[in-house]
Amino acid sequence: MVLNSKSSAWVRSHCHSGVVLENPYWSRVLKGDRIMPKRLAAFASLAAPQEAAPKIQADDDFKPIVLPTNETSKTLLCIRHTSAHVLAMAVQKVFPDAKVTIGPWIERGFYYDFDMQPLADKDLKKIKKEMDRIIRRNLPLIREEVSREEAEQRIRAINEPYKLEILDSIKSEPITIYHIGDEWWDLCAGPHVESTGQLNKKAIELESVAGAYWRGDEKRQMLQRIYGTAWENEEQLKTYQFLKEEAKRRDHRRLGQELDLFSIQDEAGGGLVFWHPKGAIVRQNIEDFWKRTHIQHGYDLLYTPHVAKADLWKISGHLEFYKENMFNQMDVEDELYQLRPMNCPYHILVYKHSLRSYRDLPFKVAELGTVYRYEMSGSLHGLFRVRGFTQDDAHIFCLPSQIKEEIRSVLDLTEAILSQFDFKNYEINLSTKPEKAVGSDVIWEKATCALKDALEDKGWNYSVDEGGGAFYGPKIDLKIEDALGRKWQCSTVQVDFNLPQRFDLFYIDSNSEKKRPIMIHRAILGSLERFFGILIEHYAGDFPFWLSPVQARILPVTDTQVPYCRKVVAKMKEKNIRAELSFGERLSKLIRNSETQKIPLMAVVGPKEVESETLTVRTRHGGELGTMTINEVIEKIQNAAANRSFL
């Protein structure tokens, strides 16, 4: 990493993602009786242990490469699909006893599953060399149509049992086969490049091997899955590799441990999150902001039980349609109870508790409700896939005529909340009525038009997934884009015609008649656990000032200044500033530890600061602020926290 040191600016470097990675080093030397600031462009002394920074050339005019996707580049999709076939052909040349199964393209490349001996990393090198040979031979990709009987005969001739099962699952005819030259073929619908020579061997990489059950069934054969990535050119691959390494550096599981934010304890069980004090502070700030904002937007807050009688989940339909994702029921005095997998039925019961008039609608309730869902241990992944998590759930019960207004209100609230976490680029999808659905065509049309109108009023671009809605109503899904350009599904707005009917919800209209309300499910953050994981990776653990677990750290030059520092910390805490004292080490180490732990403000105290009742202040994002009174520092901190800004 190349560093540009300037007297008035941070030492900084630019990465391919367009994110500025700041790595300032600041030391203090005692000169007489004063502490003098001195900037050292010595990145190596700040580098985290066991972690080498990627070598990226700094350039103020750098333009990040925008990587294509399968959706934006048909060429890339064809490259990845053909790469999967070339991989399979190469594996069977290197390991003739290997049996092939399936090999699709995926978001960042491709994979192929094989029934074969366990593979090691050295085997991937052999396979890649064989792939390169196949590419150099420039073999044609030839499409052939055959009858089902002919396909079965050919599969049996080469003894590929998994392909027989795949053939049985193909319902349409004719059956299509793709050949690589006259040496290898596979059941496939395409598309592909015209010849293997159109693949750039320097833009393809085999990444890893993992175990995978055939058809995802743990009772069936364990296969060897080889993952690879493929791109149009070498430059794209290098950019992808950089982003991949940067994603590792930002991995929330690693940073969660290093910054002491959370843990998942084996003694308690997988997928159950322990929020440590620092992580809990971040969560509390998120929750406080979420609650204040919802109250300002007309929601009433709820707290509801974590369990309920199993009959409730029969009424809601969860036991019928969602049972595999629910924990086993428990017997309580000869009645069956169920840990909740969703919050919706509880909010419905609150609605039903009182007689509602049309004048009472919309009725808007919100809850940070913890739910429990059964996940297989192999699918658990840090904070992203857990068994117990807290959803930012809200439900709106409204008149049909209020749908558009309420959807628009939800979109405004979604933008207001997500923008506070620096998420401003969205990918939005609108899913419409499927073939099988509840509710009349009229109400579906009204609801779908309301969703479209609300999106268009916002001026947001969106894609339509025709027929992709749930059977009980149309919905809007919103993905946020993080600092590395990755998309994360967080926010959902779902119209529901089903649950009001199942629970026989009604309101009294202006003619004193019972009418069915419209129910809108709505989540903005998704789950707090998953959103926190996204935030850790988005900020690389360097949270904005208002979220930072520790906002200020006071560092004495010697233990003589500790009593004064304790008074400073106490005064800051009185003003609701998250401050702490750190001492007992050399000042240079205290500073380095604070940098590693991403503390936004450090205040150094020497003899002169004690005498003048001041602090010498430096911030991660603003550099040295010089010597200031305690009240001046407190005022700056309070302003930064209130304005959601950096110091």
Largest sheet, order of strands side by side? 16-20-21-28-25-24-22-23
Low-confidence stretches: 1-64
H/I helix tally:
18
* Strand residues, percent: 25-35%
The backbone outline, from C-alpha atoms, is globular
Rounded to an integer, what's the Rg over CA atoms? Answer: 29 Å
Structural class label: alpha+beta
The helicity comes to 25-40%
Sheet of most strands: 8 strands, mixed
Average of the residue pLDDT scores = 88
Question: What are its keywords?
Answer:
single chain; 647 residues; alpha+beta; 5-stranded antiparallel sheet; 33 strands; 27% strand; globular; disordered N terminus
Q: What's the short version?
A:
By secondary structure, this protein is α+β, with helices and mostly antiparallel strands.
Would you give an account of this structure?
The radius of gyration is 29 Å and the shape is globular. The strands form 9 sheets. It has an 8-stranded mixed sheet with strand order 16-20-21-28-25-24-22-23. The two termini are 26 Å apart. It is α+β, with helices and mostly antiparallel strands and 647 residues long. α1 (74-94) crosses α2, α3 runs antiparallel to α4 and α6 packs across α14. Helix content is 33%, strand content 27%.
Question: Would you spell out the secondary-structure blueprint of this structure?
Answer:
Elements: E1 4-6, E2 9-14, E3 20-22, E4 26-31, E5 34-39, H1 74-94, E6 99-100, E7 105-106, E8 109-115, H2 121-136, E9 141-146, H3 148-157, H4 161-169, E10 175-180, E11 184-187, E12 204-213, E13 222-230, H5 234-249, H6 252-258, E14 262-264, E15 273-275, H7 277-296, E16 300-301, E17 307-309, H8 310-316, H9 318-321, E18 330-332, E19 335-339, H10 344-352, E20 363-372, E21 388-398, H11 403-419, E22 426-431, H12 441-458, E23 463-465, E24 475-481, E25 487-496, H13 499-502, E26 507-508, E27 514-515, E28 518-527, H14 528-539, E29 552-556, H15 562-574, E30 579-581, H16 587-596, E31 601-605, H17 607-612, E32 614-619, E33 623-629, H18 630-642
Parallel strand pairs: 16-20, 22-23, 29-30, 29-31
Antiparallel strand pairs: 1-2, 2-3, 4-5, 6-8, 7-8, 8-13, 9-10, 10-11, 12-13, 14-15, 17-19, 18-19, 20-21, 21-28, 22-24, 24-25, 25-28, 26-27, 31-32, 32-33
Helix pairs in contact: 1-2, 3-4, 6-14, 11-12
